[in-house]
Structure formats: structure tokens, C-alpha cells
Amino acid sequence: MTIDVAAGESRTAALCALAQQTRELMDAVIGTGVEEDELVAVAAELTALTERLEATVRVSPRPYDIAPDGTVRHLGNAAIGAANPFAVPLVVERLASGGVRAEVSFRPLHEGPPGAVHGGITAMALDHLLGQAVAVAGLAGMTGTLTIRYRAPVPYDRPVVVTAEHTRTEGRKAWADARVALPDGTLLAEATGIFITPTAWLNGPPIPTAPDSAGQ
């Protein structure tokens, strides 16, 4: 995989703004109460907008690149990608004490059981933080196993905190623990992940890690 120094930051900013507006559109679709004729009219407008964006389409996934501050980023990532409308997106911070942290408010778009976040969305957040914890420990791996225990429903439209830390390493295997909790510390879900370093990655792949968190 090749990482190219980011160019055209104004275009990148415009793309991320488009992704954010698309997230707001997705939220509006979930919650709208407008009449059928308005739904049909909006769908027709969206069809025209989609065709404009499809005028030029990438033939490969959006690659990692280098942000102006020198950090590696992945704008197309499903969990953190600022240019991916599907992403929450999570904003992950590296803690000075070790490990990583992200505070997030999930949205009605992420609902599973009534009034709560879908377990698969919670799993994605945990998996991503686990991987980041392994990465900031100086290791590189892909998820081998992910074991989750759901303790209580994860709410949406309320802040929750996701944290993770690397716990041990044996050969090409790295273990990490993570949890989702309310800001007051109430545990909602916890997970353990085992990450395997592919042999092709032994010299170190370009994996983005969380920026340092001042004051943590």
C-alpha cells in the first residue's frame, strides 16, 4: 500500500463537508414526517444529484493519506472516515497514559432495539478502538477474534465514551480490551480483541493512529 502526501486540501474539505451534509440528510430521512408527494419530489432531486456525483467515480477505495499536520488518515474508513457518510465518524484520541479514547453520540440512524444503538454499530466502535489501541502500542494487526459482552443498552442522542488499551503480545498476536460507558462510568459494553499481524505486514503497514490527547 502506498501513502501519498495529501494534496488539494480545499477539495478534501469540500468532500468532507458533503459527507457531513449527507449524514444530516440520512438523519432527516429517518425522522421525516413529510407527505408522500414531497418524498417523491426529494427523491427525484437526489437522483439528479447522484448522477452529478457519478460523472467521475473512483475505481479503487479511498487510500490512506497524510494530513497537513503529518498524521496518517483514512477519509474513507467506515468508523472514522470524515469523507464517508456512513461513518459516525469517531474521533479517536491517544491517551498519554496509554490506550485510546473516543466520545461519541450515536444517532437515531444507528438504532437497533427501540431506543438503543444496534449491537453491530456498538461492535464496530469497539473493534475500531481495539485496533487503534494495538496500533498506538506500536503493533500492526487485523482483527482475529472479537468477544463482546453487552451489559446494558447503548443510548443514542446521548454522549458515551469508548476506551481501549493494549494488554499483551505473543508473537504475531496482540490482545486489547475495550469498553463503552456513560460519562459517569456506567458500563454498557465491554470487549476483548485478538489482533494478528499478517506476515506481509511484519515490516510495518501504514496504519493510522490516534493523535495525542493534550491533558489526558
Shape: globular
Q: What is the beta-strand fraction?
A: 25-35%
Q: From N to C, what is the helix and strand string? A: EHHEEEEHEEEE
What's the count of strands?
A: 9
Strand order, sheet with most strands: 4-5-7-8-9-6
Describe this structure in words.
This protein is an alpha+beta fold and 216 residues long. The protein contains 3 helices and 9 strands. It has helices at residues 9-31, 36-53, 119-136; strands at 4-5, 65-66, 72-73, 93-94, 100-105, 142-150, 159-170, 173-181, 187-196. The strands form 2 sheets. It has a 6-stranded antiparallel sheet, covered by helices on one side. It has a 3-stranded mixed sheet with strand order 1-2-3, with no helix packed on it. A hairpin with a 5-residue loop joins β8 and β9 (187-196). It starts with a strand and ends in a 20-residue tail after the last strand.
Describe this structure in a few short sentences.
The chain has 216 residues and is of the alpha+beta class. It has three helices and nine strands. A hairpin with a 5-residue loop joins strand 4 and strand 5.
Topology readout:
Layout: E1 4-5, H1 9-31, H2 36-53, E2 65-66, E3 72-73, E4 93-94, E5 100-105, H3 119-136, E6 142-150, E7 159-170, E8 173-181, E9 187-196
Parallel strand pairs: 1-2
Antiparallel strand pairs: 2-3, 4-5, 5-7, 6-9, 7-8, 8-9
